[in-house]
Design a protein that fits this description.
Rossmann fold, five-stranded parallel β-sheet, alpha/beta, single chain, 33% helix, 15 strands, elongated, 8 helices, OB fold (Dihydrolipoamide Acetyltransferase, E2P), 2 domains
Length: 255
């Protein structure tokens, strides 16, 4: 029987190492990666497509719910939540989550959760999870939108402030952040980024582009109904006819 591929996500290094070690002890599981923050988790889920995710709920910038929002409940793999939430929030997990562990938890509790998750996946019940995850994410208010994005280049980590981004361009499974004349590539899809950005500031203008409306200078229409958005620095970004109404609504609120 093929081992289930597991991704471990926790911003506490010791907790993450411990979770991964317990996963590796199980011959029916394969630990395919460890992530210390939400952005790295999104990148890994999109690229590695794990069968199961051990997901910390409370992480800075992008928490566990933000990861699910970015991936989309319908595309999210089965999740075992690792949480330090107080009792008032646990009812939502009981109703909507595949499984959850409250910190601190024992090795035995994790083993039991993994066994339940294995049965869930092996029995082909994964399709039932999307609606439950959607309800769970909807039950928890989104605390904030993304304010910074981490760009990893070789051994360097660069921080890009979201407010500095002029527009974002799709590049296969990655996204190019255009900010003040610089271009930064992140291994996160355009769709995932769109779900994490403030919709009152950033708008999808084409299937391959998102624009910061604060940088918008003018919109030039053509006879086909499509158009071109001209940014303050002169950059031209295609505006799809199907997206024009969304842009007009946003500009109507902004001005």
């Amino acid at each position: 029987m093929k081992a289930l591929r597991v991704l471990v996500v926790d911003d506490e290094p010791l907790a993450r190492t411990g979770l991964a070690a317990l996963v590796r002890r199980d011959p029916e599981l394969e630990c395919i990666g460890e992530c210390g923050d939400g952005q790295a988790a999104i990148e890994a889920i999109e690229s590695l497509q794990p069968d199961l995710v051990l997901l910390d709920v409370q992480m800075p910038e992008i928490d566990g719910f933000g990861v699910i929002r970015a991936i989309g409940p319908d595309r999210m793999p089965p999740v075992v939540f690792v949480t330090a939430y107080e009792q008032f929030a646990l009812q939502a997990f009981r109703v909507h989550a595949l499984d959850y562990l409250v910190k601190p938890f024992s090795d035995a509790a994790l083993t039991e959760a993994l066994d339940r998750a294995k049965r869930f996946v092996r029995d082909g019940q994964v399709q039932q999870l999307a609606a439950r995850l959607s309800d769970l994410v909807g039950a928890v208010p989104q605390p904030h939108y993304l304010s910074r994005i981490t760009v990893r280049v070789a051994q360097r980590v660069q921080i890009v402030r979201v407010a500095d981004i002029d527009w974002i361009e799709a590049a296969d499974y990655c996204a190019k952040l255009h900010a003040g004349g610089s271009v930064h590539v992140v291994r996160v899809s355009l769709g995932a980024l769109e779900r994490l950005l403030d919709p009152t500031t950033f708008v999808r203008v084409h299937r391959s582009a998102i624009v910061n409306v604060d940088r918008l200078k003018e919109i030039v229409s053509d006879s086909s109904g499509d158009g071109v958005i001209v940014l303050a620095d002169g950059t031209k970004v295609r505006l799809a006819r199907s997206r024009r109404a969304a842009v007009d609504r946003l500009l109507g609120r902004a001005f």
